[in-house]
Amino acid sequence: MAKTEAFTDAIYDAIDEVAGIQDGKQWIVTRSGKLGIKSHLTEIENEFDVSFQEFEGWLTDLLTEKKPPASLEAITFSLFETADTISLYVAGAEEWDEEGDWALAKDYAPLSVEPYFPVYKPIYQLLEDHLPAGLFLGAATMIIFVKEFVSKHAELFPDGVILGAGFDGGDVYDFMELN
């Protein structure tokens, strides 16, 4: 498998190269192959579309029922490990510093139960087997899901908000600013 830096670079490439679900699944498969990821890839590919549909329904309900305040400058989609999979929480910050650790500010934390999406079960297994590969696939998948969601539902977010994704306690990748 590739060196750790190649997996981080691939996350930035997902930010730059992938618009959403249409090209996202194939991009994940192709890039994973180039990085030497072979295990769990078929499962990830098989669960990708249904996981996005579940994500879209869940996030639409969440942002409709618990609308983010207009004062938010940034919202992060933070992944974390559970006993046997990966889950996520959404948090928003009224102050954001590109150089700082804004993901820890939780001026908006609407969840009471963290969601589970099937695509993250095989990614969790990969995370256990090869940490950099799992980090890449987890973050890139979330970035692709959110980009697709925004393309359909941008009105559910505050204007000018910056969106980020990554693993809790790790790097957060700012990938989009909504206008």
Question: Mind sketching the topology for me?
Answer:
Layout: H1 4-17, H2 21-34, H3 41-65, E1 74-81, E2 86-93, H4 120-129, H5 131-153, E3 162-167, E4 172-177
Parallel strand pairs: 1-3
Antiparallel strand pairs: 1-2, 3-4
TL;DR of this structure?
With 179 residues, this protein is α+β, with helices and mostly antiparallel strands. The chain has helices at 4-17, 21-34, 41-65, 120-129, 131-153, and strands at residues 74-81, 86-93, 162-167, 172-177. It is globular.
Description of the structure:
The structure is a single chain. With 179 residues, the chain is an alpha+beta fold. The chain is built from 5 helices and 4 strands; from the N terminus they run αααββααββ. It has helices at residues 4-17, 21-34, 41-65, 120-129, 131-153, and strands spanning 74-81, 86-93, 162-167, 172-177. It has a 4-stranded mixed β-sheet with strand order 2-1-3-4. A hairpin with a 4-residue loop joins strand 1 and strand 2. The chain is globular and about 45 Å long. It starts with a helix and ends with a strand. The model has no long low-confidence stretch (mean pLDDT 92). This is SMI1/KNR4 family protein.
